[in-house]
Hints:
Elements: H1 4-31, H2 33-37, H3 43-74, H4 82-106, H5 110-128, H6 139-146, H7 149-162, H8 168-188
Helix pairs in contact: 1-3, 1-4, 1-5, 1-7, 3-4, 4-7, 4-8, 5-6, 5-7, 6-7, 7-8
Amino acid sequence: MDYYTPVVLVMSFALLALFITPGYLVGYREKGILRRLSTTPVGPARVLIAQLVVQMTTAIVTTVLVLGTAGLLWGVKLPSNVGGFLLAFLLSVGTLLAIGLFLASVLSTTKAATSMGSALFFPLMFFAGLYVPRELMPAAVATIGDFTPLGASVLAFNDAAASGSPSLTTLAVLAAYAVVFGVAAARLFRWE
């Protein structure tokens, strides 16, 4: 369970980011809610930030539940370095939500959003180590996984648990994804 706790955390963030977030925003677009919001001074950045805050709150509750359950039922130790864990959490959730907001910005139907979420979720979870533990993967596959959003997220949580802080490379990978997809989401956002 010590190995799978970070994987379960990242999987919950990925479900939130790749399925729920795009589904809500694209659904709002399909129902005309975003078109109505476009007549107000809200602006796309505020709409995206509001979704980010709501989904971040959900991620916090999920994290508390996963860590609490893992600790109580399986004796999984909480990370000793809270700062390293919080940094891994913020960058992981921020990165995944930026990808979800990007999908919501460019996709026009909830069916397309769900399909794209599925198309991304399953391969990314492979690289995160859900199906095969990363330690059992061939070195090349594990290295590729280190540079995917979910693989880097699991690595950041594992580093935070083992050494107290995520590696700079892992943090840079997550930050790069967050910036690229966050900026693209804001620039490509469509009301209709």
